[in-house]
Amino acid sequence: MWPAPVPDLPDPLTVWPAPVLELLAGGGDRPVFEDGDTVVTAAGMSELIRRIAAGLRASGIGPGRGVALRLGVNAPAFAATIAAFAVGARVSGLPGGLTEGQLAHLLERDDAVLIDDEFVAQLAGFPADPLVAAGRAEDIARIIYTSGSTGNPKGCAQTYAAMSAAWAPYPDRWPPAIAELARRLDRYLVFGSLSSQVMLEYGILTLAAGGTLVAAQRPVFPDALVEHRATASVITVGKLHQLVRAQQANPADLSGLRALMVSGSPLSPARLRSAIDVLGPVIFHGYGQTETGMIAMVTPGEMAAFAGTVGRPPPVTAISLRDGELYVRTPAQASSYWQDPSESAEVFVDGWVRTRDLATLDAHGYLHLHGRTRDVIIVQATLVYAGPIEQLLTTDPAVAEAYVVARPDDHTGESVHAYIVPTPNATPDLPALRALVTTRLGPASTPQSLTIIDQAPLTPNGKPDKSALSRSTPIQYE
């Protein structure tokens, strides 16, 4: 196990989001949120949060009551998110792309009040009352919905005690990688949803580091980075690949960019080297899950010295490898899946979170990922993992990205199918790639088809959409 067990939770008096309220209340005229020509100071944001919190309380919303946020990217939206926590509500940030049926299901299941931009505008008209964080440690503070699954989204339930144990608002708790990142967050570009786990976490880190949140209404990279003079932002692996290709084809001036936090899926060493060559030493690769929050982060300097790692877990994160599968304990992890006891029992095991990722820990304490236990293809009753095949294919210089999916097969039950994004001006040798997989990983892992694509389709969350790939027509090799 690495390292020592997770320490005790903090004093209840520091319940989330008390440190954020204190930070803003004492921030004076420091700019904390910029949206076009509108600049909101710390004092102004503090007052806006207190106004909205007063309106929420007047609407009967307080400890234990559910609210679902469907908000834009603006200062009132950020204030409403913090205010909902401050009154002790159970907060859900609604994921994008929900059908009307899914939205109705979530609101009914969570017994939640829908809060949109129009409602927030009404709440902001209330007088600003004094505000003390009212969350109860044992109550559910938020439900974070997982992405990329079919049917109704699955919600990770996180208590106020867990949120209060998080590192983001406390500089003395920052792991070394986070401390280095914090120095680069002068202007943090925010987009999508301010209530999302990653966007909010790095937003709070930015405020604690003395930086400003800068809203992008059109988050197209690299244009948004240039337009808003951003020094930092979050980016998915798929979006990073697209940014690298755009910079290779028509470079924009990104000299002010100091940090891109890559999240969502593993980043292959080959693609990492390409990104650093094109963008410079600005890549921070974070590894975590909705259930756990951040598990590890690797800095640009560490990437050069320890290729292929996702970073060294900080001391407060406990690691256990069980038959190659990674289990973790983090201070701010979720406690269960909301109203889903059977799935909760499968993933939340005796205080540990089963990540369902295959991993190893090297002699220096750095974590290396080797695919997911669930991302498998069953070929003649043999489990074939997609991750090692994808990693092997991307070792070819002509391959920029590789994605492996399963398809039903009358002969083998399931078969392996791979999709290849070439590097610029390169033509992958598909028969040679197929032979490479057979030689290195065995016949069961051999792709029955390899298909060249311009780019991978993305889900609304910016992750590669393997379900869309599996529905496309492949190029068959007998």
Automatic annotation (TrEMBL):
Pfam families, alphabetized: AMP-binding (PF00501), AMP-binding_C (PF13193)
Region (Disordered): 448-478
PROSITE patterns, A to Z: AMP_BINDING
InterPro entries: AMP-bd_C (IPR025110), AMP-bd_C_sf (IPR045851), AMP-binding_CS (IPR020845), AMP-dep_synth/lig_dom (IPR000873), ANL_N_sf (IPR042099), ATP-dep_AMP-bd_enzyme (IPR050237)
Residue intervals of the AMP-dependent synthetase/ligase domain: 28-114, 131-338
Biased composition (Polar residues): 469-478
Every AMP-binding enzyme C-terminal domain range: 389-463
PANTHER family, sorted: LONG-CHAIN-FATTY-ACID--COA LIGASE, NONRIBOSOMAL PEPTIDE SYNTHASE PES1 (EUROFUNG)-RELATED
Name of the protein this chain belongs to: AMP-dependent synthetase
Organism: Actinoplanes palleronii
